[in-house]
Amino acid sequence: MELTNKTAIITGAGKGIGKATAEALAAEGVQLGLLARTASDLEQLQQDLSSRYGVKVFTATADVANSTEVRAAVSSLASSLGRVDILINNAGTGAFAKMVDMDPEQWEQIIRVNLMGAYYVTHELLPGMLEQQSGDIVNIASTAGERGFATGSAYCASKFALLGMTEALMQEVRKSNIRVTALTPSTVNTPLAVNAGLPIGDEDRMMQAEDVAQLVLAGLKLPSRVVLKSAGIWTNNPQ
Ligand SMILES: NC(=O)c1ccc[n+]([C@@H]2O[C@H](COP(=O)([O-])OP(=O)(O)OC[C@H]3O[C@@H](n4cnc5c(N)ncnc54)[C@H](OP(=O)(O)O)[C@@H]3O)[C@@H](O)[C@H]2O)c1
């Protein structure tokens, strides 16, 4: 499917997978709305992508865990873009500790950002997609949404739930020509993985944010008759 002149909102676009996805979409001629909490990251990316690819890029800051901030930021981006064809729910956080050692505020915060954040942004944009009878929603989940591991109770719970929300919504809106997809990457070499102390191993063999972005792009380019239900992407970095 041709993506030139489509429009996309990407959450968590300032770093890692979101930033790489913004670049991959800009290279295809997609007009962008970038959202994260750090304005300077977004402004730098806005300048870079608009000058290199000649696409329109708008930015808005919000904490996706805050529904009021999400409403203001998403409506500003949507009105600047005119319509929203693609939503990439990518903003996420990760912290890993045994349940007994993680305080309830941190546990809850992971659910708020990774699950409620995706829900708030989607809820704001769904009416427009239903009205235009088209859209693509891509949720960045994780292999942690498919199997649990020690120290991952909050992160795994958030990603299992995100996959459940994805599948339920996919069934709800596919007859309206809206595709809802999840990607389930294993560890990717990004600030999140490094800050959380995840094993990166041999950097040359480690999956990069740009690799995940290519899968996002491939899914979006599939003909609209095809729904990519969920797709795994693994690092080929045996430890
Ligand atoms: N890296 C991995 O190994 C891996 C593997 C599987 C899945 N994932 C998933 O991929 C997604 C992206 O992860 P990443 O590794 O690219 O992370 P990252 O490098 O830490 O980047 C995360 C981005 O999200 C933004 N963000 C974080 N919390 C936010 C919030 N509350 N509200 C709005 N924006 C927020 C950050 O910017 P600000 O801090 O400025 O807001 C940043 O731009 C996440 O959903 C993560 O769970 C990552």
From TrEMBL:
An example molecular function term from Gene Ontology annotations: 3-oxoacyl-[acyl-carrier-protein] reductase (NADPH) activity
Annotated EC: 1.1.1.100
Glycosyltransferase keyword on record: no
CDD domains registered for this protein in UniProt: SDR_c
InterPro entries, A to Z: NAD(P)-bd_dom_sf, Sc_DH/Rdtase_CS, SDR_fam
Similarity annotation: Belongs to the short-chain dehydrogenases/reductases (SDR) family.
Protein name: 3-oxoacyl-[acyl-carrier protein] reductase
Source organism of this protein record: Paenibacillus hunanensis
Taxonomic lineage from the root: Bacteria, Bacillati, Bacillota, Bacilli, Bacillales
